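From the methods appendix. Each design record in this collection lists the discretized structure first, followed by the designed amino acid sequence. Records were kept in a plain field format so they could be parsed without special tools. The example shown here is representative of the layout used throughout.

RECORD:
C-ALPHA CELLS (133 positions):
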C-alpha cells in the first residue's frame, strides 16, 4: 500500500511543474495539499478560466489540466502510459513519482499553457462569449 508520505513527494513534484506558470496566472490556492492556477482570462460568468491544479486526495494525487479538455488535440501523441493515468477528460492521477511520465506531463503542460495563451484561442473564447449574449 502506498504511504501518505509518497503523496507529499508526488504533490511537490506536480506543484513544481506548475510553479513556472504562476507568474502568468492567478494562484487561487497554495496550501500543503492543493495548488490551483487560473488564467487571467475572465469568462462570461465573470470567473477566470481555470488552467491547472495539483491536489492530494485520499487515494492518489491529482493533476488537473483544463487545456486538454478544451483542446483535446493536445492529447495526440501522448503515451498510452500517461493516458492510463487519466481519469475523466482532464485529470491525471499518481500514487508515486514516475520520472518518465512526469517529464511527458511537463511537456504537455507547456504545450497546454501555450495553447491557452494563443491569441487565436483567446479570441475564439471571446467570440463565443459575444455570440451567447
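DESIGN:
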Amino acid at each position: 500500500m502506498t504511504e501518505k508520505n509518497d503523496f507529499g513527494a508526488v504533490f511537490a513534484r506536480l506543484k513544481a511543474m506548475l510553479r513556472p506558470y504562476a507568474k502568468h496566472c492567478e494562484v487561487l490556492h497554495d496550501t500543503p495539499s492543493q495548488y490551483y492556477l487560473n488564467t487571467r482570462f475572465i469568462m462570461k460568468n465573470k470567473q477566470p478560466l481555470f488552467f491547472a491544479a495539483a491536489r492530494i486526495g485520499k487515494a492518489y494525487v491529482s493533476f488537473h489540466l483544463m487545456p486538454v479538455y478544451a483542446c483535446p488535440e493536445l492529447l495526440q501523441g501522448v503515451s498510452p502510459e500517461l493516458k492510463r493515468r487519466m481519469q475523466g477528460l482532464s485529470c491525471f492521477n499518481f500514487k508515486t513519482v514516475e520520472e518518465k511520465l512526469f517529464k511527458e506531463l511537463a511537456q504537455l503542460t507547456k504545450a497546454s499553457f501555450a495553447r491557452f495563451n494563443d491569441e487565436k484561442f483567446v479570441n475564439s473564447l471571446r467570440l463565443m462569449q459575444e455570440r451567447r449574449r
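APPENDIX NOTE: The chain has one domain: 4-131.
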